[in-house]
Design a protein that fits this description.
heterodimer, A: mainly alpha, 2 domains, two-stranded antiparallel sheet, 2 strands, about 75% helix, B: mainly alpha, two-stranded antiparallel ribbon
């Protein structure tokens, strides 16, 4: 009796558990690999957190958001500024409030602060934006991306403007990446199983029917937007502490495209899509990166042209949309492998 | 003083015109197939590079080349990427156009490089002319005149010709138009061809103004034109033109009226204005009757 209850329990969390096992397995294998491979895998985990952040809103609501990279930028800046050496802040960021100028936080509170600031901002902009229907909402999130870029890029005394922020710890490795990826995946899975998540998914399939059934779509969109913003911001935090440099140019259309492409290729309708999309694109990008470095056959040096990876990702995304519109995973979660 | 005001207004009107043309190209495609065409920016960019290619030829040849390239690419993207997706939901179409846009942009970056290139297209337009004692840049006057001519021509086409009427019918209710004998392939192809022409003209004017080329140059224009189409009211051509104009003109006027120190943030104010308008009028300034979702 208890064992069958445990079985049911296991079965109900299997879509999450299976993905967590895959991701943890990758981390374990990578931990014994050369350091360059470890760096790449850590980078892929950072991307995964950002993709899951996007998925929480886009996957459940069906509304494409260009704005999540704004939250990544906000997270990255907040955490970088909080963890920077006070001496560096006094020199480069004179406009910071005294309290923040003196502060030198440790990584986790700073990361959480980044997430919370982004989530609060997401709530404030979400209140008007989530009233818009599908496509207008997408364009409005585009406006959000531009606002963040211009705002951060010109607020020189607080963000350093177009200059890079440096002098904060570089702590993102496979384990921090893995830990946050698992947290983000768990949050995404739990959210999509809650009433709010289910209502939102219903509205994604048929907005009018969901309305007619008495759902407050607006409220649930807003909830998903805020949660997604939090994890997008965490992705940004991790990216900043992975690169060791935060600059506003990082957080614009190329990153937006990359993250949207990963989600679309994987399949935006399921968490499995976010995870497998990230794995597929990270693997392919790494292979092409190797090809761009080139290899030697006798005296002949063969190398793929730089930038080929971008072209292939774009082409892959277009082909997926045309041939398999619900992505690699076809919008499904990982199925229970045993009978019944 | 009054001279400054007039020069400022001419600036605002010419920039507004450029964005109105861009927004119109996007609005036209949205009208017939509910597609927000990100790739419109690449049509503008490719026009720019065509001008560079024909830099040593007479300007007329370069212009013809630019038109041919923009129209051809518009038609090819429609045929390959968007036709198979006809009837898909707008978000899928949006994602597809995002992919097409990046595919073209990254392919250009791969082949011609992502470095900025200079191009001197019709340098004589940079000269100043004196109208009633006020010095104005010739290019700005040309931009305004070209826009007015194109708007008149487009509205004549949409109202007075058979294909134009078919296009309006298709924008109103695509299914009904089809049932009444409008050939959907033809109507959509014509819309893409016209959007190619509009993109090419924007490319000529923009490149002549800025003098530089880079693979991502179109996005900046199109990003602002997008929000223009949304505040104007998606699906309404008049709305697109007006919305694009307002957004473009507002960036210039804000540059003039904002105090020093806030000017760098002018586009933030534009986008905030956009969000405000959406808040007050979620369907845009001129809502399109055909867009309302039917059950």
């Amino acid at each position: 009796m208890t064992s069958s209850a445990a079985m049911r329990m296991l079965r109900s969390i299997w879509p999450l558990l299976s993905l967590a096992l895959v991701v943890t397995g990758i981390a374990l294998v990578a931990s014994v690999a050369p350091i360059t491979v470890q760096r790449r895998v850590a980078e892929a985990f950072v991307t995964l957190v950002a993709v899951v952040g996007l998925y929480i809103f886009v996957g459940n609501s069906g509304i494409l958001s260009f704005g999540n990279v704004s939250f990544m930028a906000i997270g990255a800046y907040v955490s970088a500024i909080l963890t920077m050496r006070p001496a560096a802040k006094a020199m480069f960021l004179p406009g910071l409030p005294e309290l923040i100028k003196q502060a030198q936080w440790v990584p986790i509170p700073a990361a959480l602060a980044g997430g919370v600031v982004a989530a609060v901002l997401a709530f404030l902009v979400g209140v008007p934006l989530m009233r818009l229907s599908g496509i207008a909402a997408s364009i409005a999130t585009f406006a959000l991306l531009s606002i963040t870029r211009i705002g951060i890029g010109n607020w020189n005394s607080v963000t350093g403007g177009q200059n890079s922020l440096m002098g904060f710890p570089i702590y993102t490795d496979i384990w921090t990446g893995l830990a946050w990826a698992l947290v983000a995946m768990a949050a995404a899975f739990i959210y999509q199983e809650t009433r709010s998540g289910l209502v939102l998914r219903a509205s994604r399939e048929d907005e009018i029917a969901a309305h007619a059934a008495g759902s407050h779509i607006y409220r649930h969109r807003l909830i998903a937007f805020v949660i997604g913003a939090f994890f997008s911001a965490i992705g940004g935090v991790l990216l900043g502490h992975y690169l060791g440099v935060v600059r506003i140019d990082t957080f614009y259309l190329d990153l937006t495209f990359n993250i949207v492409a990963i989600l679309v290729i994987g399949g935006s309708g399921s968490l499995a899509g976010a995870v497998f999309g990230t794995i597929a694109i990270a693997t392919m990008t790494e292979l092409l990166r190797q090809a761009e470095v080139g290899f030697q056959i006798g005296t002949l040096h063969i190398a793929a042209p730089a930038g080929l990876a971008d072209v292939i990702v774009a082409l892959g995304m277009l082909l997926i949309i045309l041939l398999r519109p619900r992505g690699i995973t076809n919008g499904r979660e990982v199925a229970w492998p045993f009978r019944p | 003083m009054i001279v400054d005001v007039i020069q400022g207004l001419v600036d605002a009107i010419s920039v507004g015109s450029l964005y109105a043309l861009t927004a119109l190209g996007i609005g036209l495609i949205f009208g017939v197939m509910r597609l927000i065409n990100f790739a419109h920016s690449e049509l503008i960019m490719l026009t720019g590079y065509t001008l560079l290619l024909f830099a040593s030829e007479p300007a007329a040849v370069a212009i013809l080349g630019g038109l041919v390239v923009a129209v051809a690419v518009a038609l090819i993207t429609e045929r390959i990427a968007f036709r198979p997706l006809r009837g898909a939901d707008p978000t899928t179409l949006l994602v597809a156009s995002f992919a097409v846009s990046f595919l073209i942009q990254k392919t250009m970056a791969l082949t011609v490089g992502s470095k900025t290139k200079g191009v001197d297209f019709l340098p004589s337009l940079g000269e100043q002319i004196v109208v009633a004692g006020i010095r104005l840049q010739l290019l700005k006057m040309v931009t305004i005149i070209v826009t007015v001519v194109l708007l008149v021509a487009l509205s004549w086409f949409l109202r007075r010709t058979r294909y134009g009427r078919e296009m309006r019918a298709a924008a109103e209710n695509f299914r009904m138009a089809q049932l009444l004998g409008v050939r959907s392939d033809r109507v959509i192809s014509i819309a893409f061809a016209i959007s190619g022409v509009l993109a090419a003209v924007v490319g000529f004017l923009f490149v002549s103004q800025s003098g530089f080329l880079e693979p991502r140059m179109g996005l900046q224009l199109v990003a602002i034109a997008f929000v223009g189409t949304v505040i104007g009211g998606l699906g309404s051509l008049v709305g697109a033109a007006i919305g694009g104009f307002i957004v473009g003109a507002a960036t210039v006027l804000l540059q003039l009226v904002l105090p020093y120190g806030l000017r760098e943030f002018r586009e933030v104010f534009v986008y905030l204005l956009v969000i405000f308008i959406l808040l007050v009028r979620p369907q845009g300034l001129i809502p399109s009757a055909g867009l309302r979702q039917r059950v």
